[in-house]
Write a structure and sequence with these properties.
- The structure is a single chain.
- The protein has 205 residues and is an alpha+beta fold.
- The protein has a single domain, classed as Nuclear Transport Factor 2, Chain: A.
- Helices cover 58% and strands 18% of the residues.
- It contains 7 helices and 5 strands; from the N terminus they run H-H-H-H-H-E-E-E-E-E-H-H.
- Strands 1-2-3-4-5 form a 5-stranded antiparallel beta sheet.
- Helix 3 crosses helix 5.
- This is Phospholipid transport system substrate-binding protein.
- Keywords: Signal.
């Protein structure tokens, strides 16, 4: 009886491990699909998109809106100040962040070499809910962008982007610190800090 019970435990542990790895592998598949969309819908059409910023921004949005919750991303950037903001301020902050990130991402994507984008095999993962998927982007002018996409499974079962680390720069953490500084510089006035945030991002786009 003990031997049978032990066998059942081993069986279920193997099944659970396989299911967990399958779920993690789906996170990588999601990134593969996003990268392929970048390659075919943007990088391969860069000659046209370089002359049409509005079309470029729309295409980037079409790709990212399926995997990025910009409202949630903006909430993380606002951090402890999110609860103090009004619904209107939260919405405006999210829109400013989204619009600027789309422009910035679009401009950067036009510099990639479409034939040298490599989604790496999954490496060791941490104990949290996020799954890290590493991608190497070769730039046409030389140099490599090492991007880690941190994916988190939503309640609906799909995988969403929760954070991005580019060449070891944690963008979620960096943005949160920057907004915190702007709050301090504007005497904790959220309205003024959002305006300063807009101006800061505009200079980087």
């Amino acid at each position: 009886m003990l031997r049978i019970f032990s066998g059942v435990l081993v069986f279920f542990s193997l099944v659970s491990a396989n299911l967990a790895w399958s779920n993690v592998d789906e996170a990588r598949n999601t990134v593969v699909n996003v990268v392929e969309a970048f390659r075919t819908n943007i990088v391969a059409d860069k000659a046209v998109l370089a002359k049409d910023p509005a079309l470029l921004e729309q295409r980037v949005n079409d790709i990212l809106e399926e995997v990025v919750d910009f409202d949630d991303f903006s909430k993380k950037v606002m951090g402890k100040y999110y609860r103090r903001a009004s619904p209107e301020q939260r919405a405006r902050f999210a829109n400013v962040t989204k619009d600027t990130l789309l422009k910035t991402y679009g401009a950067s994507l036009l510099e990639l070499d479409a034939d040298r984008i490599n989604v790496l095999p999954l490496g060791p993962q941490g104990r949290g809910k996020e799954t890290k998927v590493d991608v190497n982007f070769q730039m046409e002018a030389g140099g490599v962008l090492n991007i880690s996409f941190y994916m988190e499974q939503a309640k609906q079962g799909n995988w969403m982007l929760s954070n991005v680390v580019i060449n070891n720069i944690n963008f979620g953490l960096t943005f949160r610190k920057q907004f915190g500084v702007m709050m301090e510089q504007n005497r904790n006035d959220i309205e003024s800090a959002i305006s300063a945030w807009r101006e800061s991002l505009a200079k980087k786009s």
